[in-house]
UniProtKB/TrEMBL annotation, chain A:
<dbReference type="InterPro" id="IPR035906">
    <property type="entry name" value="MetI-like_sf"/>
</dbReference>
<dbReference type="Pfam" id="PF00528">
    <property type="entry name" value="BPD_transp_1"/>
</dbReference>
<keyword id="KW-0812">Transmembrane</keyword>
<protein>
    <submittedName>
        <fullName>Carbohydrate ABC transporter permease</fullName>
    </submittedName>
</protein>
<dbReference type="GO" id="GO:0005886">
    <property type="term" value="C:plasma membrane"/>
</dbReference>
<dbReference type="InterPro" id="IPR000515">
    <property type="entry name" value="MetI-like"/>
</dbReference>
<comment type="similarity">
    <text>Belongs to the binding-protein-dependent transport system permease family.</text>
</comment>
<keyword id="KW-0813">Transport</keyword>
<feature type="transmembrane region" description="Helical">
    <location>
        <begin position="182"/>
        <end position="207"/>
    </location>
</feature>
TrEMBL record, chain B:
<dbReference type="InterPro" id="IPR035906">
    <property type="entry name" value="MetI-like_sf"/>
</dbReference>
<feature type="domain" description="ABC transmembrane type-1">
    <location>
        <begin position="66"/>
        <end position="277"/>
    </location>
</feature>
<keyword id="KW-0472">Membrane</keyword>
<feature type="transmembrane region" description="Helical">
    <location>
        <begin position="104"/>
        <end position="124"/>
    </location>
</feature>
<keyword id="KW-1133">Transmembrane helix</keyword>
<keyword id="KW-0813">Transport</keyword>
<dbReference type="GO" id="GO:0005886">
    <property type="term" value="C:plasma membrane"/>
</dbReference>
<comment type="similarity">
    <text>Belongs to the binding-protein-dependent transport system permease family.</text>
</comment>
<feature type="transmembrane region" description="Helical">
    <location>
        <begin position="12"/>
        <end position="35"/>
    </location>
</feature>
Length: 276, 288
């Protein structure tokens, strides 16, 4: 009886702590986003005297000539295009890397793994993009996201590829399939579970990415949603309510992914990090 | 491998990925070693030897970055290992609120780092912030979390742990669930209690998870930029400047050669710390 009571009280404390540690900041954001500038500047948890959420949203969206709408468009486009390229390129690469076993294989693995550790060199990357006329372009930032996300995705795909039996390849070859037809009509559809994992995890990463757009996609026309936060901090210096409305709006897409794909997100982020 | 399979698994499949990876990542990394030795304006460069590196080590406002980067990475890494392990054990035990707690702990991982930084720098405001008004209500006087040079770096590190502990926790949960049940059954027969179980089963046998958490959070800590930049911009003074934020400042100032030297230093710093660490961790790992 005593043990059950102590277990129950530990659990109650944990739930209470989770409310203080995680819900209070969220509640604070929502509350501040509903306030007027004066009340927001008090930075407290008092209930707003009048609800301004809708007018705050309108004001944030219209700020700087509808920068936020452009930013949502840019971020969505950047995320979707990067995902498409990443899925096609990485699954193809992982197919050959897992199936082949010759002298070059360890070297390729080494190159891919070092991409997980080495920080990208900023200015030389800008210089290369500039030489290719891709600096400050959507194509440029998409290629950067693809290149930097590649090691993680290739490892995910390669790990899963090992569970697809080679007998399938052999049977297809007997039926006269070539490499491309084998990959795109048989293997790629079997990779659907990893592809889903890649989509969910990388969508969050790329949508939330701040550093790469900051360096490689500058200019007010190019803003992404994370950069609007950064730009608005200087503009809305006395209007915390608007800044927090922006935070609320740009948190909605990852929040939706979290609600619908919680299990897959967790599985995707942990797979590969715990050796099987 | 037979000839026919060499043709089936053609290296052509590697081509698109290899081109993007080489052009956007490998080539700039190689070039950085050269450009770090120059005074560089993007259109023009002049070789100046190791001057940029000398500046980096001599100038106190730049060399403080080494110390801060290391402290930040070490502190956040240790806190995530300890906190992740404890939460992992707690969230794999038989409690009713398990699923709720797992989700809520993981949630901050998915929120934009810049947003987290802005919200917390407001909550850490010295006079009106939530943290200090709560402390005042309890009868304590809270410090100036982000304005005091002695604790600013630790305050940012705390927020980084808040944001990243969910990730460490889910890795530990996966690691702990992978421990075969026979071990705890054997312990039960021998009459061991929960304390014994923690120290002689969970800690040693979740080593793969520990290694992953250490390596991933240490690399993340050494490279981190966005949270620090959103919260303090390296200030007050240079108290929270890490190598990555110094690179950004030099880049903004147009000192491209110096910024690239910073990148090379970060590259060497990260590899010099991470490779020995991961080799050591792998060597001391026990097999299940």
């Amino acid at each position: 009886m005593n043990r059950r009571l102590s277990r129950w009280s530990i659990e109650a404390i944990a739930v209470l702590a989770s409310v203080v540690i995680f819900w209070v900041p969220l509640y604070f954001v929502i509350l501040t986003a509903m306030k007027d500038p004066q009340e927001a500047s008090l930075m407290n948890l008092d209930w707003p005297s009048s609800f301004q959420l809708w007018s705050n949203i309108k004001e944030v969206v219209a700020a700087r000539d509808y920068m936020l709408l452009r930013a949502f468009w840019n971020s969505s486009l950047m995320t979707v295009l990067s995902l498409v390229l990443m899925i096609v390129f990485c699954s193809m690469a992982a197919f050959v890397m897992q199936r082949r076993n010759d002298k070059a294989t360890p070297w390729i693995s080494f190159f891919v793994l070092s991409g997980l550790i080495i920080p990208p060199s900023i200015v030389p990357t800008i210089w290369v993009l500039d030489e290719l006329n891709l600096f400050k372009t959507l194509t440029g930032i998409v290629l950067v996201e693809v290149a930097l996300g590649m090691p993680f995705c290739v490892l995910l795909y390669r790990g899963f590829m090992a569970t697809i039996p080679r007998e399938i390849d052999e049977a297809a070859v007997v039926d006269g399939y070539g490499g491309y037809r084998l990959f795109f009509t048989i293997i790629f559809p079997l990779l659907k579970p990893v592809t889903a994992t890649v989509v969910v995890t990388q969508a969050v990463f790329i949508f939330n990415d701040f550093t790469n757009p900051l360096y490689f996609f500058p200019g007010s026309k190019n803003a992404t949603v994370q950069l609007t936060l950064y730009n608005f901090t200087s503009q809305f210096v006395s209007q915390w309510n608007l800044l927090f409305t922006d935070i609320l709006l740009i948190t909605i897409p990852p929040l939706l992914l979290f609600i619908f794909f919680n299990k897959r997100l967790v599985a995707g982020m942990t797979s590969g990090s715990v050796k099987g | 491998m037979s000839k026919i399979f060499k043709r089936i698994y053609t290296y052509q499949f590697l081509l698109p990925a290899a081109i993007v990876y080489l052009v956007i990542f490998v080539v700039p990394t190689g070039l950085s070693f050269f450009f770090s030795l120059t005074r560089w304006t993007l259109s023009d460069w002049e070789l100046i030897g190791f001057d940029n590196f000398v500046t980096f080590f001599k100038e106190p406002s730049l060399s403080i970055g080494f110390r801060n980067t290391f402290i930040f990475a070490a502190v956040t890494c240790l806190a995530k290992v300890a906190g992740g392990l404890l939460l992992g054990v707690f969230l794999t035990s038989k409690i009713r609120s398990r699923n709720y707690l797992r989700s809520i702990v993981f949630f901050p991982t998915l929120v934009s780092t810049i947003a987290v930084g802005i919200v917390f720098s407001m909550m850490m405001h010295p006079t009106t912030g939530l943290l200090n008004t709560t402390l005042a209500w309890l009868g304590f006087e809270g410090p100036d979390w982000l304005g005091d040079t002695r604790i600013a770096l630790l305050s940012v590190a705390f927020v980084d742990v808040w944001r990243g502990i969910g990730f460490a926790t889910v890795i530990y949960i996966a690691g702990i669930l992978a421990i075969p049940a026979e071990y705890s059954e054997a312990l039960q027969i021998d009459g061991g209690n929960a304390w014994n179980k923690f120290w002689s089963i969970i800690v040693p046998l979740s080593r793969p998870a520990t290694n992953s958490v250490i390596i991933l959070s240490f690399i993340g800590g050494l490279r981190s930029f966005d949270l620090i930049w959103a919260m303090t911009r390296g200030g007050p003074g240079f108290a929270t400047d890490v190598i990555a934020s110094i690179i950004y400042k030099q880049y903004q100032g147009g000192f491209y050669g110096l910024a690239t030297a910073g990148n090379v230093i970060l590259f060497i710093f990260v590899t010099a710390l991470v490779f020995p660490l991961s080799r050591y961790l792998n060597r001391t790992e026990v097999d299940l």
